[in-house]
Known about the structure:
By secondary structure, the protein is of the alpha+beta class. 59% of the residues lie in helices and 11% in strands. It has helices at residues 3-20, 33-49, 55-72, 78-96, 110-121, 136-146, 169-180; strands spanning 100-105, 128-131, 153-157, 163-167. Strands 2-1-3-4 form a four-stranded mixed beta sheet, with helices on both faces. Helix 5 links the parallel strand 1 (100-105) and strand 2. Helix 1 (3-20) crosses helix 4 (78-96), helix 3 (55-72) crosses helix 4 and helix 5 (110-121) runs parallel beside helix 7. The protein starts with a helix and ends with a helix. Glutathione is lined by residues 106, 109-111, 148-152, 168-170.
Amino acid sequence: xxxxxxxxELVRLLQExxxxxxxxxxxxxxxxxxxxxxxxxxxxxxxxxGVSVTQSRxxxxxxxxxxxxxxxxxxxxxxxxxxxxxxxxxxxxxTASEDRLTLYYQPxxxxxxxxxxxxxxxxxxxxxxxxxLLEPDARAALLGARGRATVPVLHIQTPDDEERWMPESADxxxxxxxxxx
Length: 181
Ligand SMILES: N[C@@H](CCC(=O)N[C@@H](CS)C(=O)NCC(=O)O)C(=O)O
Protein backbone atom coordinates (compact mmCIF):
# COMPACT_ATOMS: atom_id res chain seq x y z
CA UNK A 1 0.00 0.00 0.00
CA UNK A 2 1.42 3.41 -0.94
CA UNK A 3 1.54 6.34 1.43
CA UNK A 4 -1.49 8.16 -0.10
CA UNK A 5 -3.49 4.93 0.13
CA UNK A 6 -2.39 4.50 3.74
CA UNK A 7 -3.46 8.09 4.41
CA UNK A 8 -6.95 7.52 2.99
CA GLU A 9 -7.31 4.26 4.89
CA LEU A 10 -6.13 5.87 8.13
CA VAL A 11 -8.60 8.77 7.76
CA ARG A 12 -11.35 6.20 7.26
CA LEU A 13 -10.24 4.23 10.32
CA LEU A 14 -10.13 7.34 12.50
CA GLN A 15 -13.55 8.53 11.36
CA GLU A 16 -15.04 5.08 11.85
CA UNK A 17 -13.56 4.85 15.35
CA UNK A 18 -14.86 8.30 16.27
CA UNK A 19 -18.34 7.54 14.94
CA UNK A 20 -18.73 4.67 17.41
CA UNK A 21 -18.62 7.09 20.35
CA UNK A 22 -20.49 9.97 18.65
CA UNK A 23 -18.73 13.08 17.28
CA UNK A 24 -14.95 13.38 17.69
CA UNK A 25 -15.05 16.94 18.98
CA UNK A 26 -18.60 17.10 20.36
CA UNK A 27 -19.29 18.31 23.92
CA UNK A 28 -20.63 14.86 24.79
CA UNK A 29 -17.31 13.23 23.91
CA UNK A 30 -16.11 10.72 26.48
CA UNK A 31 -13.13 12.18 28.41
CA UNK A 32 -11.49 8.76 28.08
CA UNK A 33 -11.67 8.95 24.25
CA UNK A 34 -7.90 8.45 23.62
CA UNK A 35 -8.04 5.13 25.50
CA UNK A 36 -11.13 4.02 23.62
CA UNK A 37 -9.69 5.02 20.26
CA UNK A 38 -6.38 3.32 21.10
CA UNK A 39 -8.18 0.09 21.97
CA UNK A 40 -10.09 -0.09 18.72
CA UNK A 41 -7.32 1.30 16.49
CA UNK A 42 -4.51 -0.93 17.76
CA UNK A 43 -5.12 -3.98 15.55
CA UNK A 44 -6.09 -2.28 12.26
CA UNK A 45 -3.35 0.33 12.61
CA UNK A 46 -0.67 -2.27 13.34
CA UNK A 47 -1.78 -4.09 10.22
CA UNK A 48 -1.80 -0.91 8.15
CA UNK A 49 1.71 0.14 9.24
CA GLY A 50 3.17 -3.36 9.31
CA VAL A 51 4.52 -2.89 12.85
CA SER A 52 3.09 -3.67 16.25
CA VAL A 53 1.72 -0.49 17.86
CA THR A 54 1.00 -0.48 21.60
CA GLN A 55 -2.15 1.05 23.10
CA SER A 56 -0.12 3.31 25.40
CA ARG A 57 1.87 4.70 22.48
CA UNK A 58 -1.32 5.24 20.53
CA UNK A 59 -2.92 7.05 23.46
CA UNK A 60 0.06 9.41 23.74
CA UNK A 61 0.08 9.95 20.02
CA UNK A 62 -3.68 10.80 19.91
CA UNK A 63 -3.29 13.35 22.70
CA UNK A 64 -0.32 15.00 21.03
CA UNK A 65 -2.12 15.01 17.65
CA UNK A 66 -5.11 16.73 19.24
CA UNK A 67 -2.88 19.37 20.84
CA UNK A 68 -1.04 20.03 17.56
CA UNK A 69 -4.30 20.16 15.58
CA UNK A 70 -5.78 22.78 17.93
CA UNK A 71 -2.60 24.84 17.95
CA UNK A 72 -1.59 24.65 14.30
CA UNK A 73 -4.52 23.87 12.01
CA UNK A 74 -7.92 23.92 13.76
CA UNK A 75 -9.61 24.67 10.44
CA UNK A 76 -8.40 21.37 8.93
CA UNK A 77 -10.33 18.13 9.24
CA UNK A 78 -9.09 16.47 12.42
CA UNK A 79 -8.92 12.98 10.88
CA UNK A 80 -6.93 14.25 7.90
CA UNK A 81 -4.51 16.11 10.20
CA UNK A 82 -4.07 13.17 12.61
CA UNK A 83 -3.50 10.74 9.72
CA UNK A 84 -0.84 12.92 8.11
CA UNK A 85 0.93 13.43 11.42
CA UNK A 86 0.96 9.75 12.25
CA UNK A 87 2.31 8.71 8.85
CA UNK A 88 5.00 11.40 8.97
CA UNK A 89 6.07 10.29 12.45
CA UNK A 90 6.08 6.68 11.39
CA UNK A 91 8.27 7.44 8.34
CA UNK A 92 10.61 9.65 10.39
CA UNK A 93 11.08 7.09 13.15
CA UNK A 94 11.75 4.35 10.60
CA THR A 95 14.53 6.46 9.09
CA ALA A 96 15.78 7.65 12.47
CA SER A 97 16.13 4.12 13.78
CA GLU A 98 18.95 3.56 11.27
CA ASP A 99 20.86 6.71 12.24
CA ARG A 100 23.93 6.50 14.43
CA LEU A 101 23.66 8.97 17.32
CA THR A 102 26.38 10.22 19.67
CA LEU A 103 25.89 12.62 22.55
CA TYR A 104 28.87 14.78 23.53
CA TYR A 105 28.46 15.71 27.17
CA GLN A 106 30.04 16.60 30.49
CA PRO A 107 28.87 14.80 33.65
CA UNK A 108 28.18 17.91 35.73
CA UNK A 109 26.49 19.91 32.98
CA UNK A 110 22.81 20.47 33.83
CA UNK A 111 21.80 20.89 30.19
CA UNK A 112 23.45 17.55 29.40
CA UNK A 113 21.66 15.94 32.31
CA UNK A 114 18.28 17.05 30.98
CA UNK A 115 19.04 15.36 27.68
CA UNK A 116 20.36 12.23 29.38
CA UNK A 117 17.31 11.98 31.64
CA UNK A 118 15.10 11.98 28.56
CA UNK A 119 17.32 9.35 26.91
CA UNK A 120 16.87 7.19 30.00
CA UNK A 121 13.11 7.73 30.05
CA UNK A 122 12.81 6.79 26.36
CA UNK A 123 15.31 3.93 26.80
CA UNK A 124 17.56 5.25 24.05
CA UNK A 125 20.44 2.95 24.95
CA UNK A 126 21.76 2.99 21.40
CA UNK A 127 23.00 6.59 21.72
CA UNK A 128 26.75 6.55 22.27
CA UNK A 129 28.01 8.84 25.04
CA UNK A 130 31.26 10.78 24.79
CA UNK A 131 32.52 12.65 27.82
CA UNK A 132 34.46 15.66 26.54
CA LEU A 133 36.24 16.11 29.88
CA LEU A 134 37.66 12.61 29.92
CA GLU A 135 38.11 11.98 26.21
CA PRO A 136 40.46 14.49 24.54
CA ASP A 137 39.62 13.14 21.07
CA ALA A 138 35.89 13.74 21.69
CA ARG A 139 36.58 17.34 22.65
CA ALA A 140 38.86 17.71 19.61
CA ALA A 141 36.15 16.29 17.31
CA LEU A 142 33.64 18.76 18.69
CA LEU A 143 36.02 21.68 18.37
CA GLY A 144 36.97 20.65 14.83
CA ALA A 145 33.35 20.37 13.71
CA ARG A 146 31.81 23.33 15.50
CA GLY A 147 34.69 25.60 16.45
CA ARG A 148 33.61 25.42 20.08
CA ALA A 149 33.42 22.76 22.77
CA THR A 150 30.08 23.67 24.37
CA VAL A 151 27.99 20.66 25.36
CA PRO A 152 25.53 19.02 24.97
CA VAL A 153 25.82 18.32 21.26
CA LEU A 154 24.09 15.47 19.46
CA HIS A 155 25.88 14.07 16.44
CA ILE A 156 23.59 12.37 13.93
CA GLN A 157 25.04 10.18 11.21
CA THR A 158 22.70 8.70 8.62
CA PRO A 159 23.32 5.40 6.82
CA ASP A 160 24.27 7.49 3.74
CA ASP A 161 27.03 9.10 5.81
CA GLU A 162 25.35 12.48 5.99
CA GLU A 163 26.07 14.08 9.30
CA ARG A 164 24.57 16.77 11.45
CA TRP A 165 25.83 18.38 14.65
CA MET A 166 22.95 19.51 16.84
CA PRO A 167 23.80 21.85 19.76
CA GLU A 168 21.32 23.31 22.29
CA SER A 169 19.71 20.99 24.82
CA ALA A 170 16.19 22.25 23.99
CA ASP A 171 16.64 21.36 20.30
CA UNK A 172 18.10 17.95 21.14
CA UNK A 173 15.22 17.19 23.50
CA UNK A 174 12.68 18.28 20.91
CA UNK A 175 14.37 16.15 18.25
CA UNK A 176 14.54 13.02 20.43
CA UNK A 177 10.90 13.38 21.46
CA UNK A 178 9.76 13.87 17.88
CA UNK A 179 11.75 10.89 16.66
CA UNK A 180 11.47 8.41 19.49
CA UNK A 181 8.69 9.31 21.97
N1 LIG B 1 22.09 26.88 25.73
C1 LIG B 1 22.97 25.74 25.82
C2 LIG B 1 23.90 25.91 27.01
C3 LIG B 1 25.00 24.89 27.01
C4 LIG B 1 26.09 25.25 28.01
O1 LIG B 1 26.14 26.37 28.54
N2 LIG B 1 26.97 24.28 28.29
C5 LIG B 1 28.08 24.51 29.16
C6 LIG B 1 28.17 23.37 30.18
S1 LIG B 1 26.77 23.32 31.23
C7 LIG B 1 29.39 24.46 28.38
O2 LIG B 1 29.55 23.65 27.50
N3 LIG B 1 30.30 25.37 28.69
C8 LIG B 1 31.62 25.34 28.14
C9 LIG B 1 31.75 26.06 26.82
O3 LIG B 1 30.84 26.82 26.42
O4 LIG B 1 32.80 25.85 26.16
C10 LIG B 1 22.12 24.46 25.92
O5 LIG B 1 20.97 24.53 26.42
O6 LIG B 1 22.57 23.40 25.48
